[in-house]
């Protein structure tokens, strides 16, 4: 780790008059969807050299699953490869060919889970989005940093497309190929920028953590995230939201459709408020007049009846239970001392982040700061704070920058 603080501003300057990139340099390759074609691609990747650029396209907002519907790769000597993963149980032969090869991804945490489902797991990686954040760039989207560092503009018209569509349109495949076209060059430019700022080791620690991270999110009472639920009053009405949400989730999972494609959150909230008991009353509610509202009316009415028949002891709490600290806006009434401690800690984090040209959330998770301030270490000194930060998953560079400063701030 560097002993000297990094520079306080990034050195990269935006390139004037960026060039619009509309086609990959070798054209758009045929999509691989057969075993023989996959075998040839694996052989080409294995014979290539240097890191591999990799990306995945999902169908977020269209499908229930978060699986990959297209895999894009680019490696020196192999060129660009597009793989349709649907015909294959997994891509473990490709994973074996990439064993020990550095992966370059943009926003790796978004793609690593669906790649792991296909037996593709990196041993080492470089995340260009995270690298841009650590470098202090304000805009960290792929198109923005490609334009800034390489002078090329990427079209992003199909970023929200339904990638489960078959056959995939030619324009979509062009877009997908361009996503990895310059990723290796972009990595080199960002690595130079991070080195100039003295942050290369910080980035290496962050990237190493990504290779072993568990991206599984288990939420308590996920139905409470229903948009508009704040309009619903009373435990019985909340039970109706929960029952309707669960019915929708099961149907969406069976059909592999995004829940919003079945019925929207607003419809669940409206039904919870109105508590309709007949199909006519149900389909009179906006949101239940479409395909899934009408054809599955009995499902929705059963869900409402189930909530209606619940004993009081099984009704949900009117406010969610918290495993950790309460919401920060309630600290002043619950524990004024902790609230003051949190204010000082947040100010200290902001000060350190600004001094090192970092987003505060990349310096330390706000949730970790809240947890430490609500239940601080027994001894508020640098050594104890370092131990506490490590228990919350902080990396060495974060502990070095923050342990003493947080201990000082929290002790007042």
Automatic annotation (TrEMBL):
<dbReference type="InterPro" id="IPR010997">
    <property type="entry name" value="HRDC-like_sf"/>
</dbReference>
<dbReference type="InterPro" id="IPR041605">
    <property type="entry name" value="Exo_C"/>
</dbReference>
<protein>
    <submittedName>
        <fullName>Ribonuclease D</fullName>
    </submittedName>
</protein>
<dbReference type="InterPro" id="IPR044876">
    <property type="entry name" value="HRDC_dom_sf"/>
</dbReference>
<dbReference type="InterPro" id="IPR002121">
    <property type="entry name" value="HRDC_dom"/>
</dbReference>
<dbReference type="InterPro" id="IPR036397">
    <property type="entry name" value="RNaseH_sf"/>
</dbReference>
<dbReference type="GO" id="GO:0006139">
    <property type="term" value="P:nucleobase-containing compound metabolic process"/>
</dbReference>
<dbReference type="GO" id="GO:0000166">
    <property type="term" value="F:nucleotide binding"/>
</dbReference>
<dbReference type="Pfam" id="PF18305">
    <property type="entry name" value="DNA_pol_A_exoN"/>
</dbReference>
<dbReference type="GO" id="GO:0003676">
    <property type="term" value="F:nucleic acid binding"/>
</dbReference>
<dbReference type="Pfam" id="PF00570">
    <property type="entry name" value="HRDC"/>
</dbReference>
<feature type="domain" description="HRDC">
    <location>
        <begin position="234"/>
        <end position="314"/>
    </location>
</feature>
<dbReference type="InterPro" id="IPR051086">
    <property type="entry name" value="RNase_D-like"/>
</dbReference>
<dbReference type="InterPro" id="IPR012337">
    <property type="entry name" value="RNaseH-like_sf"/>
</dbReference>
<dbReference type="InterPro" id="IPR002562">
    <property type="entry name" value="3'-5'_exonuclease_dom"/>
</dbReference>
<dbReference type="Pfam" id="PF01612">
    <property type="entry name" value="DNA_pol_A_exo1"/>
</dbReference>
<feature type="region of interest" description="Disordered">
    <location>
        <begin position="311"/>
        <end position="333"/>
    </location>
</feature>
<dbReference type="GO" id="GO:0008408">
    <property type="term" value="F:3'-5' exonuclease activity"/>
</dbReference>
